[in-house]
Specification:
This protein is α+β, with helices and mostly antiparallel strands. The chain folds into two domains: 73 residues, Glutaredoxin (3-Layer(aba) Sandwich); 133 residues, Glutathione S-transferase Yfyf (Class Pi), Chain A, domain 2, CATH 1.20.1050.10. It is 58% helix and 8% strand. It contains ten helices and four strands. A four-stranded mixed β-sheet has the order 2-1-3-4, covered by helices on one side. Helix 4 runs antiparallel to helix 5 and helix 4 packs parallel to helix 7. It starts with a strand and ends in a 5-residue tail after the last helix. The relative contact order is 0.13. Bound molecules: glutathione. Glutathione binds next to helix 3.
């Protein structure tokens, strides 16, 4: 088990950024292995034969797959310093509920609001509005979803803090703004200005350029290209 932890990821992926952030919060040294998703490595396919997707965390030569499962694995394996999940069973269940809501509902609605047109886009934008209001409400009176410190819900919501902003900007639509979502905007500012988050996420303008360059392809396929 002495081998260094490895993270198979991609710099433009919000899912590998989740894992990177969790490892950095815990202070776990790791080797980052940048995958070319258009030409996946044989190792990635070997470690994740079911989905062939990043992120994959390799610990002691054993692969852990799916970003949210990896986050829980990291929290349980490197217990001690920064808690990613609350200790209290009720708070833990609640955190898992919001994480699932973000993953199952919010991400898709935000993503498709950027990459659809006409009536479909209108519907996705309405869904996004409703979901963002629910998150705005959940954040009331708190600095982070996790309270005073960054927790699993914040980490799961990384997509909202950076990707949703950059992608919507590259598609010239407004999804999250100060006027409608003051609490969420404040969270984004707090989250993105945290030193450990700054060290874990891709550079804003680089991400913007990445999506801007891929706009036509993504629009045609609607497939997540992050
Ligand atoms: N549910 C997965 C999603 C992972 C995912 O969608 N990864 C994308 C990159 S962001 C990927 O590897 N795509 C390659 C492909 O679909 O072939 C997780 O949370 O880890």
């Amino acid at each position: 088990m002495g081998e260094k932890v490895k993270l198979f990821g991609s710099y433009a992926s919000p899912f590998s950024s989740r894992v990177e952030l969790a490892l950095k919060l815990k202070g776990v040294p790791f080797e980052n292995i940048e995958e070319d998703l258009a030409n996946k490595s044989a190792l990635l396919v070997q470690y994740n034969p079911v989905h062939k997707k990043i992120p994959v965390l390799l610990h002691g030569g054993r692969p852990v797959i799916e970003s949210l499962i990896i986050l829980e694995y990291i929290d349980e394996t490197w217990d001690g310093n920064h808690a990613i999940l609350p200790k209290d069973p009720f708070e833990r269940a609640l955190a898992r509920f919001w994480v699932k809501f973000i993953d199952d509902k919010v991400l898709g609605a935000l993503w498709m609001s950027c990459w659809s047109e006409g009536e479909k886009q209108k519907n996705f934008m309405e869904q996004s509005k409703e979901y963002l209001e629910l998150l705005e409400n959940e954040l009331k009176g708190k600095k982070f979803f996790g309270g005073d410190t960054i927790g699993i819900v914040d980490i799961a919501a990384t997509f909202i803090a950076l990707w949703a902003i950059m992608v919507s900007r590259s598609c010239s639509i407004s999804l999250i703004n100060e006027e409608k979502h003051p609490i969420l905007c404040n969270w984004i500012e707090e989250f993105l200005s945290s030193e450990v988050v700054k060290k874990s996420l891709p550079e804003k303008e680089k991400l913007f350029a990445y999506f801007h360059a891929k706009k036509e392809v993504i629009f045609a396929t609607k497939a997540p290209a992050y």
